[in-house]
Specification:
Protein name: Major virion structural protein
Radius of gyration: 27 Å
Organism: Bacillus thuringiensis serovar toumanoffi
InterPro entries: Ig-like_fold (IPR013783)
Number of helices: 8
Structural class: mainly beta
Largest sheet: 6 strands, antiparallel, barrel
Distance between the termini: 34 Å
Strand order of the largest sheet: 16-17-24-25-26-27
Length: about 700
């Protein structure tokens, strides 16, 4: 199953919002991956022990960690975040980790137990909108993180010398609205009466914002803490820093302001059985998927875009073993802005007419310094050339828009069109739809570091750049960029609609782009299109390699359902087939400067096709395929055995299976002739058998590897 498409009704598994993590896990397992750890981590802020304000923040994450054929690890987490209030303590007691087993805790012997209660809170409040992915180099200590267990900690910003940002990590009234700067509709939020200075004790933050408890629950290196009443501090007791957890990549399937869920309130149109469409390639080392939530509730303004998700090899150009692993995804164009000095709106005091280049405004200090992109009432994009007092000099007709008067001639709103400073008076939906994919300075993805790590220089968040496991000389999780056979980004036609929308669905039709007039596109005569591998580049190290199972091309005017690439050095005329995909999310495929031309027309490998090949008769095929030839077996490090093998030449070969001591270890293995078995008992000689399976489902007897002792 190298290519999957969950859209057809007869697809065997449906990715629904409620089971997405489980079905995703089964998809990987069915394709040769192994699920090596499944657990929960809960975090509670210190106000559960030390009441200083009325609210206590909680978070619990479910982590599933997978290992591929190369032995590389990938973590996938979903999270529930919720508050409790002291004023409702009689109805809902403030809970603390393992309070039911502590004789000194007021909740001693309380039912349900802490573990039962916090796991139910995960079920009730899980955010289906956000998915989190990360890389790691080793599994957390199994004595502290048990299979299907719960790790619970009390957390505070800065505990144990960990890094924090005071504005982001300290709790406050309406933290989410203050930090992300979007309005969730007319939902009543109760005021909390407190002295802000009360939250700081000897330069320690005694409250934790929703961001901080989420970060603490996503972290898998801090595994035990305790609250020290005398020191007024959360103390780290047990940790496993050699896990080397990467920055966590936050993938947002739809705009978070579209729904409001606070169990039992569900103000949403995405339910537990709403489907998430999944398309793309998966084998035993790499997957490249495109995700999209149900678009029926909101199909306009790029609020539910297509999201890429890549984890896999960066294939070396020289064919050597210097293969890094890359992780990246995408998210919704943001509404947030964090510069508190620029939250107000700037107005024009005079009527704006088409052709005006000098605008008179009430307060130019609220706007960024030139050069910067501005929007007038969200209807026209202009470029700020100069600020002088209350006068703005602007350049009209920017990026495909036209010089025209705003819909409201007087009192026109002028706001910065970028990540951090959208006007409060512009609707959330309009801010998202007008995101400038050509602005190289707009930072979109949230950077969520594990508690014990900072990776301070040029690390990647997996959205604004490509995250690579390690550089050639050992730097972890550096930001990398994409390079491919692309035209200049300024080459016409402009990839933008009449009012500045730059996502593909807004401008893609051929009749709007006049794409046929330009040369870097699909030929009308030969039906050929310029394409190339998608290379992964570091500013210091140069080209590291290229993405596996993908090609890049100019997507404008592309209406094909398949792209055919002739295989070289093949005795028969065999083609690699690629499925074209359009990406609407902010990602390394759609935003400058990560790609030299936006957006990348993405082709994902689906299968090899020989037009002259006679179709195989699977119905009457009862003969199993030939066996593999095992060429190498060794134990290169502790608790590990590597197996290399050659595949048989059967044209109907589907995959191979690996058995360990008579039990299935990995099934559905494709895309590799190497497999690393890990977690074995040192000193033993396990029996390793490899079988082959054809497209009719026939499985061979199998070949047993020469027994060797595990290091």
């Amino acid at each position: 199953m190298p290519y999957i498409d969950s859209t057809p009704q007869d697809y065997p598994s449906k990715f629904e919002e409620d089971n997405l993590q489980d079905v995703f896990a089964q998809m990987l397992i069915d394709n040769g991956w192994t699920l090596v750890r499944n657990f929960y981590k809960a975090a509670v802020d210190t106000r559960a022990y030390n009441r200083r304000t009325d609210q206590v923040n909680y978070a619990i994450a479910r982590h599933t960690i997978f290992r591929n054929a190369d032995g590389k690890l990938l973590g996938f987490a979903t999270i529930s975040q919720f508050p409790l209030k002291y004023k409702y303590e009689k109805k809902q007691p403030i809970r603390r980790p393992h309070d039911d087993t502590d004789p000194n805790d007021p909740n001693f012997k309380m039912k349900p137990t802490w573990d039962e209660w916090i796991k139910q809170k995960y079920v009730d409040n899980t955010t289906r909108t956000n998915l989190y992915f990360y890389m790691l180099e080793k599994l957390p200590n199994s004595n502290l993180v048990k299979e299907d267990g719960i790790v619970s900690i009390v957390t505070m910003p800065g505990m144990g010398g960990t890094s924090f940002e005071q504005d982001r990590d300290r709790d406050r009234d309406d933290w989410s609205k203050w930090w992300y700067e979007y309005f969730e509709g007319n939902y009543h939020v109760e005021d909390r009466d407190y002295d802000p200075e009360d939250l700081i004790y000897e330069e320690k933050l005694l409250s934790a914002s929703p961001f901080h408890v989420i970060r603490s629950a996503l972290d898998i290196e801090v595994l035990e803490t305790r609250w020290d009443t005398d020191m007024q501090e959360a103390v780290i007791e047990k940790a496993d820093p050699r896990v080397m957890q990467s920055p966590i990549v936050k993938t947002t399937l739809r705009a978070e302001f579209l729904e409001h869920i606070n169990d039992p309130l569900w103000h949403t149109n995405w339910w537990t059985d709403s489907e998430v469409r999944v398309k793309g390639h998966i084998d035993s080392t790499t997957f490249f998927l495109v995700l999209q939530a149900d678009t029926a509730p909101v199909w306009e303004k790029n609020l539910v875009p297509t999201i890429p998700l890549y984890f896999g090899k960066v294939n070396s150009l020289d064919g050597d073993k210097d293969e890094g692993y890359a992780l990246f995804s995408g998210t919704i164009p943001p509404v947030k802005r964090v510069d508190s000095t620029r939250k107000e709106t700037t107005f024009s005091w005079r009527k704006i007419m088409p052709g005006d280049t000098i605008l008179y405004v009430n307060d130019a200090t609220k706007l960024p310094e030139a050069p910067a992109l501005l929007t007038i009432n969200g209807t026209e994009v202009v470029k700020l050339i100069e600020k002088k007092g209350k006068y703005l000099t602007v350049e009209r007709a920017q990026l495909g828009t036209f010089m025209r008067a705003p819909y409201w001639d007087t009192g026109a709103t002028i706001a910065r069109l970028s990540t951090n400073n959208a006007s409060k008076r512009v609707k959330n939906e309009d801010v998202v739809s007008l995101f400038d994919f050509d602005d190289p300075g707009a930072t979109v993805g949230e950077t969520i570091y594990p508690l014990l790590k900072l990776y301070p220089h040029h690390s990647s968040n997996g959205v604004d750049s490509v995250m690579v496991s390690r550089s050639r000389f050992g730097a972890r999780y550096q930001a990398h960029y994409l390079s491919w056979n692309a035209p200049s980004n300024q080459l016409p036609p402009n990839r933008v609609d009449e009012i500045g929308k730059k996502y593909p669905r807004a401008y893609n039709p051929v009749e709007k782009t006049n794409n046929y007039k330009y040369q870097f596109n699909t030929s009308r005569y030969s039906d050929k299109v310029h394409s190339s591998r998608i290379y992964v580049v570091h500013p210091e190290e140069g080209v590291r390699g290229y993405l596996d199972k993908a090609i890049g091309f100019n997507s404008q005017g592309m209406s094909a359902t398949n792209l055919r690439v002739a295989k070289q050095n093949c005795p028969e005329k065999v083609y690699e087939m690629y499925k074209p995909h359009s990406i609407g999310a902010v990602s390394p495929l759609t935003k400058l400067p990560v790609t030299p031309f936006r957006p990348v027309g993405l082709g994902i490998y689906s299968e090899d096709i020989n037009p002259n090949e006679v179709p195989h008769d699977n119905k009457n095929d009862k003969t199993p395929p030939g066996e593999v030839k095992i060429t190498k077996v060794l134990s290169p490090k502790s608790q590990t055995i590597d197996v290399e093998f050659d595949l048989p030449t059967d044209k109907d070969l589907k995959h191979v299976n690996i058995y360990l001591d008579g039990k299935i270890y990995a099934t559905g293995i494709t895309g590799t002739t190497y497999y690393r078995l890990m977690g074995l008992n040192t000193g033993f000689k396990p029996e390793i058998k490899i079988t082959t399976v054809d497209s009719a489902g026939n499985e061979s007897v199998g070949i047993t590897a020469t027994p060797i002792e595990v290091s």
